[in-house]
Specification:
Layout: H1 3-10, H2 27-39, E1 54-58, E2 61-64, E3 69-71, H3 75-78, H4 87-97, H5 109-121, H6 139-154, E4 158-162, H7 171-175, H8 180-183, E5 193-196, H9 216-226, E6 235-240, H10 256-266, E7 271-274, E8 298-300
Parallel strand pairs: 4-5, 4-6, 6-7, 7-8
Antiparallel strand pairs: 1-2, 2-3
Helix pairs in contact: 9-10
Length: about 325
Amino acid sequence: MSLAYDELFRNLHYLNAPNIVVTPPGPKAKALLDRQSKLEGKAVLYPLYIPLVPEEGFGATVRDVDGNVYIDFFAGIAVANFGYSNPYVVEAVMNQLRKIVHTLDFPSEPREELAEKLISIAPGELKGECKVLFGGPTGSDAVESAVKLAKWITNRRVILTFEGSYHGQTAMALNLSSGRTFKDPYIPLAPEAHFLPYPYCYRCPFKLQHPECNTVCVDYVEHLIEDPYSGIPSPAAIIVEPIQGEGGIIVPPPEFLPKLRRIAEKYGIPLIIDEIQSGMGRTGRWFACEYSGVTPDIMTISKAIGGIGLPLS
């Protein structure tokens, strides 16, 4: 590492991290946590387990209101690819704020530059050939838009998703997620999702061992689609995370996505690959699906695309 790069890296973080000066939660943090519990609804989740009240963030480090400094290995739930308060991003944001912020869906130079860049780095056959749809501020918005697009293309309603999946918190996106903790208070949601076994080889639902299993979990997906008595109508789409995030950072075997891609093509089902947590360079390539050489029909991006936590999908 060059001295110049080393100096740049060191200057993008609080150099005394980690440094605990008051046992968390400190007095200021506790007062604000108590205040939050009185003023905000029960949807607040993280402070129940992590008594943190951030005051400032810089790079991969966060300082709380009591002066404690932490290293954030969470990247702010996978959104802060460039680190908190990255001065280069902050400068670009401030320059745009001085010009104009809200433009509906009218074109602007930064908007079209971003679209061109996304198209240029798209995986596989999408590179240079796809279209960009700006979904809104969150990953849930991207999933909603992707599912609506698939339904419009196919004129079908049912979506196939996977056990252990997480695709968002809006009604449709939540319905495609498998966690009961998130879903149970709001059931019934739209009855359009069917859950399939994800290739979690460490805890295989079929009690088999990889690679001897020959990824029978994917064969089972084809069985459900092909069998007219499976109880599953013709799907509008299959949505899948190339690496499951909330499900436990589950990396499937390399043959999983290619086999799923072949099944989707065979039965004319759009394949939606959800790169909201895994995309934008978080695995060492722009998108995790690139490792398997699979091109999605529709791909969702959010979180890290905002660089320092800016909301975009």
